[in-house]
Amino acid sequence: MDYKEALEYISGVSWLGSKPGLERITELLSRLGNPQAQLRFVHVAGTNGKGSISAMLASIFKKAGLKAGLFTSPYVNRFNERMQISLNPIEDNELALLVEEIKPHAEAMDDHPTEFEMMTATALLWFCRNKCDIVVLEVGLGGRLDATNIISAPDCCVIANIGLDHTAVLGDTLEDIAYEKAGIIKEGCSVVMYQQFGEVMEVVRDVCSERSAELTVPDFDDILPEFDSRDGQVFSYGGEAYALSLLGEHQLKNAATVIETVKVLRRLGWSIEHEAVEAGLYSVSWPARFEILHSEPWFVVDGGHNPQCASALSECVKRYFPDDKRVLLMGVLRDKDYKTIVSTLAPLFDAFVAVTPDSPRALDAAALAEEFAPYGKEVQVCASVSEGVSTALDIAEELEGMACACGSLYICGEIRACFGLK
User: Shortest CA distance to 136 belongs to which of 188, 83, 77, 180?
Assistant: First the structure.
């Protein structure tokens, strides 16, 4: 089996989609000798920010000299990004060999594992074979019934910001979604949760109480921004100063959540010096999160795909481009709350470009353009993402302003490639 065949097998049409439940991943990992039992984890759930938090942790662990696995989804440029060791993605040949090894076990099961379960098993086997010191394991969807929840009690559970997304699977209230996310909390483990209020916090506190889990919540009032520009941010938290390459106030809150997680790990015996935290935050890279790709004219890409992400993007646009004329390039999936995303962002922009993401779930660009029509501004419909980028750049240049692309991670890889980034 070569790399292409491995990817084709993982994404086999007969087992695409999400099928909640731990039965299949339990059986598959048992057939593989339960590699997850040989590993230690930080398990990360949440609606928004869990990828950024995972990337920050992996960057810090690398600076601390730890051999750290990182499992995330989805990817921006290449599938291999989903599983990394010390921030190095799995090599094509390694992935092919692992999938070839796993295939007969999956084929022998009465109920074949899903695509995500195959990815999870592949990553866990790879991390185990490479004797990772610690693994940052990002939940795929929800938490309680997600394939990553096959692990026993992690060293720390981290719950990022929670909002309404994937409501058809997780429930249509914040309480329901919070309960699903809190499903990763195991008996007696440590938990760090992004500061939230109301029913979300109550649900998580109740689960922690039931499972004798110690809960830590960062104090966002303790975040003191000191410098903020398009080049990065400098802030202090807990009396210590840090520089962060990621932009936006929400990333400072994610960083505070990460800093509290490191404190928990230190209490558990992990040696992570302050200098490693400083260096890890300074050097962290997480593509397509309000990422500036170009200047003259400025071009920003953001993978945000729900109303909370749209609100954060709105704040970033106003903060970093307060006086600029702006063009919005957007492509979305039809099962997302795109009407709210449009209503949040459209008033900030002077022109719109609509594209269709490369996904069977995509909203057609012409249908998206109709959502922009009531705002009475120029709307262009483009046949491809690359054409959309070119059009947005042309309009931004005419306006002597900036362009911002958003709506789905499914368009971000192709957009970054237009600027020579892979």
Answer: 83
